[in-house]
Amino acid sequence: MQRSGTITHHPLRIIQILPALDAGGVERGTVEFARELVKRGHESIVISNGGRQVERLEAEGSRHIRMPVHRKSLRSLVQVRSMRRLLADLKPDIVHVRSRAPAWIAWLAWRKLPVNDRPRLVSTVHGMYSVNAYSAIMTKAEQIIAISDCVHDYITQNYGIPEARITRVYRGLDPSVFRQEGDDGAWREQLFEEYPQFRGKRLLVMPGRLSRWKGQEAFLEVMQHLCQLRNDCHGIVIGEAEANKQHYLQELLDKRHTLGLDERVTFVGHRSDIQSFYRLADLTCHLSNKAEPFGRTVPEALACGCPVIAYDRGGASESLHAAFAEGLVEADDVKAVARRADELLHRDSVNIQLPEQFYLQYQTEATLAVYRRLLDQA
Fold this sequence. Notes:
Blueprint: E1 13-17, H1 25-39, E2 43-48, H2 54-59, E3 63-66, H3 80-90, E4 94-97, H4 100-110, E5 120-125, E6 143-146, H5 149-159, E7 166-168, H6 185-194, E8 202-207, H7 216-229, E9 233-238, H8 246-258, E10 265-269, H9 274-280, E11 283-286, H10 297-303, E12 308-311, H11 314-323, E13 328-329, H12 334-345, H13 360-376
Parallel strand pairs: 1-2, 1-4, 2-3, 4-5, 5-6, 6-7, 8-9, 8-11, 9-10, 11-12, 12-13
Helix pairs in contact: 1-13, 3-4, 7-12, 10-11
């Protein structure tokens, strides 16, 4: 741990703490950010309860420490003493918390360390959580990162945090994964062999975990209206239901049948090749029935050159306002989505300009700048 005025010129030891490293946007973003830290010569450590992405994290140069920081229970507080010892031994420059349960453990451990010899504490608020004392832990860090303007507003309006303690940093895309150009020819042929109904169609994709608030029901209604306007479209729903929510998948399949869309909409389940779907598709839809903190599928699709239609609310609208405002429609108006889709499908080309602040390099540098400001105050 270094405390000199030249701290920003030296490699940093940075600890990120989150519940686990399984699937999910926060988890993937943590691993990608850790890789970027290592590339820049910093020491990257992640504390979590483990998961499928640990192997990748370690292969890319970070260290993982397994600790049961994931449980949303008072019993988790028995980890505070172990966390305090770990922080005292590792002597990191920065501790960066990304979720509420581990944030409580980390903060209670951190605040009892000697003030002049403890790391600086940063949090990223990834969601617009219910407003209560439990959620307030994310605002106790010395500096707070908000992943969108709507999350920034949520923090200031509900917790009265001074602007000087909050920095808006969008979650950044890895351009090596999400880019407009890609050699998908063989992939495409294999997909068409598996799903011959896609061949020769104008394709609309609806990515996201199968959940009532993610908008799959609205997508089915959009497809019903769109198929009344034209007969060359096919909808692709990408995503799976959690183990305890398989009944919702059946509800969606039943609704598809009721709307007469059995031959017009296909559910393909979880896919690890989402970027290829974006490059294949004519349109991507984002139809969550409540404001999302960020809406990662929107900039992902835009980065791949795929136009997006989304409701004009929440974080999803921020990236569309910045890159492709023509894709915005009034919230919850499925007929307007269908009409806009029809309009865009009649065009020969569209102009998409995704700004640099939605890419991983910008996010990394902006986050490091938050760290440096804190360390230079020491």
